[in-house]
Amino acid sequence: IVALESTIITHGMPYPQNLEVARAVEDVVRKAGAVPATIAILKGALHVGLDPVHLTDLAQVRDVAKVSRADMAFVMAQGRTGATTVAATMIAANSAGIEVFATGGIGGVHRGAEINFDISADLRELALTPVIVVAAGPKAILDIPKTMEMLETYGVPVIAYGQNFMPAFWSSTSDVPAPLRSDSAAEIAAGFRAREALGISGGQLIANPVPQIAEIPTSEINPIIKQALHDANQRGISTKAVTPFLLNRIFELTDGKSLITNIALIKHNAKLAAQIAISCHNLPKT
Length: 286
Ligand code: PSU
Ligand code: MN
Description:
This protein is α/β, with parallel strands linked by helices. The protein is 47% helix and 13% strand. Strands 1, 2, 3, 4, 5, 6, 7, 8, 9 and 10 form a ten-stranded mixed β-sheet that branches. The chain starts with a strand and ends with a helix.
């Protein structure tokens, strides 16, 4: 089983592309031989796996909360609907016995964190919860070197898939070296089992580069990210609103090109996640 998050659907992409992508990503997982489980809170109930009607509703619903570790339980107690971030999806996946989770990009240390202290709860979750998260690296709107430092401090293995450098979400590579590298799903599964055997808590982050054909090179995306960050500052965007604002602003500034890349990388991650899930299934716990 491969877990999929829902914040990407409600806060990461516009309708109707979000619904198309949510469905397409589930199909990629099925084609690769695994079972998708999109995770969300619907009217107070935590769903692990959404049926087509739920998925369609979620893609269009307004005022849906973006929930992380801090607020998921309270949103459920209030009977509200909430989209799960990477952190909340990991918690739900783990409680359902799912070991692998595919997303676009994880949250991380924001640029200017030395002033605004904005560090995503996704990082601490990776330190705590034993789930393998497949992502195209930390989102490039973040401070990638600081995010790497934080992950190291938290004891999270960061494994680049098939290359020596960290991918940067829209771009297939950055100039930040990856701490670990793997070229095989089976090896990633073996690493996860070895952590379990050692009694080390937490997950693994698999940094899977976007296919080069679909990437936006750093030289092209960096000035756009700068502009989007400037706009966010000017408008006083803060806390949970920062990531959705930036993603939407970058979508506007690239005339939709960023979304095309985003879709390509999510599908690519879903496929690798399915391969890892199958490897994990074939590798019993010791
Ligand atoms: N990657 C995307 N789109 C998104 C996100 C990631 O391409 O919408 C979401 C994920 O749910 C991630 C969250 O967990 O953004 C991080 O938000 P924050 O920086 O507020 O922790
Ligand atoms: Mn934040």
